[in-house]
Amino acid sequence: MRRKTLMLLPLLVWAPHLPAQNSFTGRWEQRASATQARQPAWPPPIITTYVGLIQVARIDFIRQTATNLVQTWSLDGSKGLNLIPFANTEVDVNLPAYCLHNLPTVTNGAGDMSFVLKYRPLAGNAEHGNYVLSAFLASTIPTGSYKNGSPDATISPNLGFGKGFGPFDVQTTLGASLPVEDTATLGRAIAWNTAGQLHLAKYFWPEIELNSTWFSGGPNDGKNQTFATPGLLLSIKHRHGETDGRLGLCVGGGMQIATSSFHTYNHGIAITTRLLF
Questions:
Q1: What are 175-231's pLDDT values in tens digits?
Q2: Of the candidates 202, 210, 272, 277, which lies 20 to 30 Å from 250 by C-alpha distance?
Q3: Domain extents for the chain?
């Protein structure tokens, strides 16, 4: 009996780990960790879309102030849940923001719901080139109420690229927002966003972003607007490889400042909260 117990001892020690490793959540966590371990460990910028893949629950709060001091709050900032269901692939489900206005003539209400499918064909972590290339397709559906969203759905093809240089990284995205109907009325928009980040003192990431949009057709035909967005992120992560814990927290904020003669609002304050898992 003693001999049999000794023979089974290694199995008894190993067995409690089997359910976690072979469970649905365990396999998902391992796959997500392996996928992210192959790319740089930069935090998502405040405004610019993250060019890598990430699993995060995110809520933003944005206040936009027009030249006439009319203010609009966007609660949730059209953010939501980002998941890595397959290798090199991310799927985002973004809940409608709730818009609050300080004008009594404008009714508060929900914005549009959106979805993102992202694929990352090329990437290298800090030891293997420190870069990432991705392509993603975003779409919105007109769930807005009281004119707080678009009257038609849109699709938005995008490309993203990032490169790190020691503690500094640059992430840039280029894409277009294309209405599926009423294009002559709504118009198209081309957006180019670039963020430069610097890693300081382990947890801090000061950054500067340039967010530019060119309009073709619609009420702003031929115009373009650009915002400069200085900001700061505090990123506390516990995932540094495929075997470390994945939970992390990232919070931060920035100020959008209009730098072009035409702008749909004068400046904006963006506050972001992210739970990484």
A1: 999 999 989 889 999 999 999 999 999 999 999 999 999 999 999 999 999 999 999
A2: 210
A3: 29-276
Superfamily of domain 29-276: monomeric porin ompg (2.40.160.40)
Count the Cβ atoms, other than its own, within 10 Å of residue 71: 15
**Amino acid identity at 202:** K
At 2, phi and psi to the nearest 5? -60, -40
Question: Residue 184: phi, psi to the nearest 5?
Answer: -65, -35
Residues 201 and 181: beta-carbon distance below 8 Å: no
